[in-house]
Design brief:
Layout (H helix, E strand, L loop, with lengths): L4 E6 L2 E3 L4 E8 L4 H4 L2 E9 L4 E6 L2 E9 L2 E5 L4 E4 L4 E5 L4 E7 L5 E9 L10 E5 L6 E4 L2 E7 L1 E2 L2 E2 L8 E8 L4 E7 L3 E8 L1 E4 L5 E4 L2 E5 L8 E8 L4 E8 L7 E3 L2 E3 L2 H12 L10
Antiparallel strand pairs: 1-22, 2-3, 3-4, 4-11, 5-10, 6-9, 6-11, 7-8, 7-10, 9-12, 13-14, 14-17, 15-16, 17-24, 18-23, 19-22, 19-24, 20-21, 20-23, 25-26
Length: 283
């Protein structure tokens, strides 16, 4: 099965009050049914103090550092600093509480993806995983490379241990290079262009430049692998491609929680205020 672009757009940005600097929505939350299992994706520029101590429940986050440094502190005792090209994965489960901050005077530039979990796993244990750029296996091809962070594709396994089946790949290409990217045929997929200019698909390929977003075609019932043809039209072209198995459950995204009903959202707020998410995260 050959993939092509289903829909596409460019991210719009708004300035924000300090310590936030600028924000854009790569995947807007009001279209989560189309993106299933993905809920939203935000692109943020911020300094220390923007994302201090806060709770989560019922979903997963995947944060990619574009520039600057990001310090993560959590209620499992974890603390680490991520640099450009690194990912941080969190399964919020039932009681996640963490802080995500710029380091020293850095402006952190990040992409954060929210991923749903099935209802039966919303009470799962909270866990975090830093996936450093150098830990991901790299598949080389003429004029470029594909770095696999999650899933089994191109003959390698990504190191990320996601709760739901998904793939995450960073593809870097020089002008004129072509690549056929593998994706599980049953997965919903989207991409975000980080740099340069690239075309996607074989029949009537679509050209996208930096800040371009595209969702890809998919058919229910398809099995095995599919492929997306990518061609770089400029030097230093780079794209992130994500795919995930649809969960097909109704959800209620509200504040820092994603549950299956408003009653469960209210329960999450009660539990947080009752101290069930653990102690506050300190600087």
């Amino acid at each position: 099965m050959k993939r092509r672009v289903n829909d596409h757009w460019y991210v719009s940005y708004e300035e924000a009050a300090f310590p936030f600097i600028q924000k854009g929505w790569i995947l807007p939350v009001d279209r989560w049914k189309e993106f299933d299992p993905f809920i939203l994706m935000a692109e943020d520029w911020f300094k220390k103090g923007a994302f201090s101590d806060h709770p989560h429940r019922g979903f997963q986050t995947l944060t990619y550092v574009v520039d600057g440094r990001l310090e993560h502190t959590d209620n499992a005792g974890g603390r680490g600093i991520l640099e450009p090209g690194d990912f941080q994965y969190m399964n919020a489960g039932w009681t996640a509480r963490h802080a995500e901050e710029g380091v020293d005077d850095d402006i952190a530039h990040t992409l954060q993806l929210w991923i749903n979990t099935p209802a039966k796993q919303k009470k799962s244990d909270t866990f975090y995983q830093d996936v450093l750029s150098e830990q991901a296996p790299v598949v080389y091809f003429e004029g470029g490379s594909a770095k696999v962070f999650a899933g089994h594709i191109h003959g390698v396994n990504g190191p990320m241990k996601a709760v739901v089946p998904m793939t995450v790949t960073e593809i870097s290409m020089e002008e004129g290079a072509t690549f056929k990217h593998e994706l599980p045929a049953s997965h919903n997929s989207f991409l975000y262009v980080l740099g340069g200019e690239m075309t996607f698909g074989e029949d009537e390929p679509l050209t996208l430049a930096k800040h371009g977003v595209a969702t890809l075609t998919r058919k229910d019932g398809e099995q095995g692998m599919s492929e997306l043809k990518i061609k770089a039209k400029s030097r230093r072209s780079k794209v992130l491609v994500y795919s995930g198995e649809p969960i097909k459950e109704d959800i209620v995204p509200y504040g820092p929680f994603v549950m299956n009903s408003m009653d469960e959202i209210k329960e999450a707020f009660r539990d947080f205020h009752a101290g069930k998410f653990g102690r506050a995260i300190k600087d």
